[in-house]
């Protein structure tokens, strides 16, 4: 009996990982191609960087619609729709004739990725709760960080052999493989007591007015803004300005993903020992420390390894500590509308982070200084916690187990 249960859990975990990989792989695999895309489309640097932002914005805003649909139609159906749409949009990307067309197709691809992401997070909330869900989210985070570690390297090889288009052909092939996996390996987990779709506005208001959701979604936002800022600005700093090759950039990018992977494997034990709330607080502290170090090293003119890679490595540890714990605490009170809650959390993270990074990109400030400022944002929810109602927050933490 235990073996059967373990086998079922392993199969479910594999499906969940396959679903959440659509988002990071859709971004990371073509990062080494940013300079090539600038030349191919005769575009400005910010326009190519905006193909990442557009993907994230559409993924974030799309969740506001996809979440309630996942509660109404079911997680499995939404996942399958998203995978098919992702494969089709990946294929169409190859035929884009202008940077504007590329952005439109990337927007569709972002909506597709939000379908698979909402479905995966809702399934975890359906099957696990409290501290257990925090542990599952942390393991998922560790597994999906194989994508940032490996995707840029794979992308560099594909670009060298067949050009940037090969990255998107690879994404289409991945979608084809996953649609077969989900079709045979994912059963519907939507609870029978989930609320009707007509209550969507009431549910959204209940979610965003919840003290615990407000606090922990801000923690997730701080972490996501840091990682998106690094993903957006690092090709410029390392390839364009520092002169690294695409393969060298991919290796450095993989190094930070490795830190997240290692931390995510360790985080479940830490959660069991100190609880998800304290784990979140520790992650925020690490991010703030990293921001201070990056800012100091920039003004003192220290080498790039110290001014960029070391602080980003420290902040990546903080990111891994925050995301799994804060996600579980934010979603824990909403078992009857897990898809809607996961969608709202995803929207806060993706849209908020994308808008912040886009706005900061317009500033005439060196990228390293901007990235340091983003990391220091981690100190904001850390400090704000002192001014919240301790009784209310304690109730949220204790309910999460």
From TrEMBL:
Domain Major facilitator superfamily (MFS) profile: 12-390
Keyword Hydrolase: no
Keywords for the protein's UniProt record, in alphabetical order: Cell inner membrane, Cell membrane, Membrane, Transmembrane, Transmembrane helix, Transport
GO terms, biological process: xenobiotic detoxification by transmembrane export across the plasma membrane
Localization of this protein: Cell inner membrane; Cell membrane
GO CC annotation, single: plasma membrane
Record InterPro entries: Efflux_drug-R_Bcr/CmlA, MFS, MFS_dom, MFS_trans_sf, Sugar_transporter_CS
Chief localization: membrane
Domain of life per record: Bacteria
Leader sequence segment: none
Regions crossing the membrane: 12-31, 51-70, 77-96, 102-124, 136-162, 168-187, 213-233, 248-271, 283-302, 308-331, 338-357, 363-385
Membrane topology, as annotated: Multi-pass membrane protein
Keyword Phosphoprotein: no
GO molecular function term, any single one: xenobiotic transmembrane transporter activity
Family: Belongs to the major facilitator superfamily. Bcr/CmlA family.
Protein name according to UniProt: Bcr/CflA family efflux transporter
Native organism: Spartinivicinus marinus
């Amino acid at each position: 009996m235990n073996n059967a249960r373990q086998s079922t859990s392993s199969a479910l975990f594999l499906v969940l990982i396959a679903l959440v990989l659509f988002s990071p792989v859709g971004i990371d695999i073509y990062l080494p191609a940013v300079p090539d895309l600038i030349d191919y489309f005769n575009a400005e640097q910010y326009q190519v960087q905006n193909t990442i932002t557009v993907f994230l914005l559409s993924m974030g805003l799309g969740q506001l619609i996809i979440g309630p649909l996942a509660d109404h139609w079911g997680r499995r159906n939404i996942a399958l729709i998203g995978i098919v749409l992702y494969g089709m949009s990946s294929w169409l990307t190859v035929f884009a004739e202008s940077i504007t067309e590329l952005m439109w197709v990337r927007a569709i691809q972002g909506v597709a990725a939000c379908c698979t992401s909402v479905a995966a997070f809702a399934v975890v909330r359906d099957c696990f709760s409290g501290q257990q869900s925090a542990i599952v989210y942390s393991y998922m985070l560790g597994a999906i960080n194989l994508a940032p570690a490996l995707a840029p390297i794979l992308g560099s090889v594909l670009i060298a052999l067949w050009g940037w288009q090969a990255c998107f052909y690879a994404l289409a092939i991945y979608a084809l493989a996953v649609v077969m996996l989900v079709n045979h390996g994912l059963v519907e987990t939507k609870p029978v007591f989930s609320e009707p779709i007509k209550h969507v506005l009431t549910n959204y208001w209940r979610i965003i007015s919840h003290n615990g959701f407000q606090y922990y979604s801000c923690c997730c936002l701080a972490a996501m803004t840091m990682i998106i800022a690094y993903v957006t600005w690092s090709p410029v700093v390392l390839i364009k300005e520092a002169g690294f090759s695409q393969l060298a950039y991919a290796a450095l990018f993989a190094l930070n993903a490795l830190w997240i992977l290692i931390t995510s494997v360790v985080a479940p034990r830490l959660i069991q020992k100190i609880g998800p709330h304290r784990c979140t607080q520790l992650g925020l502290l690490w991010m703030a420390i990293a921001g201070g170090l990056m800012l100091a090293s920039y003004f003192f003119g220290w080498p790039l390894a110290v001014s960029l890679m070391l602080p980003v490595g420290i902040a990546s540890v903080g990111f891994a500590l925050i995301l799994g714990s804060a996600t579980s605490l934010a979603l824990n009170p909403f078992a009857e509308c897990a898809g809607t809650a996961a969608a709202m959390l995803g929207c806060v993270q993706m849209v908020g982070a994308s808008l912040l990074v886009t706005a900061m990109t317009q500033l005439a400030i060196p990228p390293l200084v901007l990235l340091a400022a983003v990391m220091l944002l981690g100190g904001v929810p850390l400090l704000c916690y002192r001014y919240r109602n301790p009784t209310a927050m304690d109730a949220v933490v204790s309910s999460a187990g």
